[in-house]
Predict the structure.
Amino acid sequence: MTLAGKKGLVLGVANKRSLAWAIAKRASEAGAELALTFQGERLEENVRDLAATLGRESLIHPCDVAADDQVDALFAKIGESMGRLDFVVHGAAFAPREALSAPFSQTTREAFRMALDISAYSLIALARGAQPLMAEGGSLLTLTYLGAERVLPNYNVMGVAKAALECSVRYLASDLGPQNIRVNAISAGPVKTLAAAGISGFSDILGVYRERAPLRRNTESGEVGDTGVFLISDAARGITGEVLYVDGGYHVMGM
Ligand code: NAP
């Protein structure tokens, strides 16, 4: 699979464990030119250091996906310096920590609003921003989790946000398909990242997957990276509106 000559935007890199980074790394190895974003000054150095390892120049730009002006500024900058976009990888998600440990019925209105805004609505905002830069077609990819469909301990409001995200993938796929813009999601098995560390009891979830997934092991971020490259590449040109599981097969199990 090659991404030679393709230009892509990747959001959601916090550090080297980030799933968005796994996709960015593989995409760069496959020949893509990248723009990477960081959220807040705290992460800028991380993202710049990681980008420097790619062996090619990447555009680095701040973007809080909850702020329309920052999303607009990002696409204006990309238009100016890259001219067009072939793919966008959306790896941003957030829910307040207490919402990922308290009983679900205690979810506050504000926690619900934030989780849905940052983790689901942002894909729509990014799709809108990317559209004018994808005149020749393109591919949008997001990251979701089984908690969208089934109850996982403490995933709580993030499960609701992922359900909205997966549904948005289908509506966006229908909306943008006539412009040859594809929209897909990877439903990844649990991987120990910064975001995952905020989910109470996450290590127990890892253990259950190791024990019960058909492949009897945990998902590796490189597996998500490889599938990400497939979905954004022309090899997946017939696939849109899809949620593809990269979870060692865990989702097929009844028990
Ligand atoms: P991660 O490394 O912590 O990445 C999440 C990223 O989202 C961070 O860079 C985070 O920045 C960013 N973010 C949060 N709020 C944002 C905002 N308002 N604007 C822009 N960026 C924002 O964790 P990850 O596990 O790789 O998560 C990537 C995606 O994969 C998420 O959608 C997650 O739900 C999904 N996923 C993860 C797993 C897993 O087990 N790890 C499994 C399935 C799906 P801050 O650090 O500043 O908040």
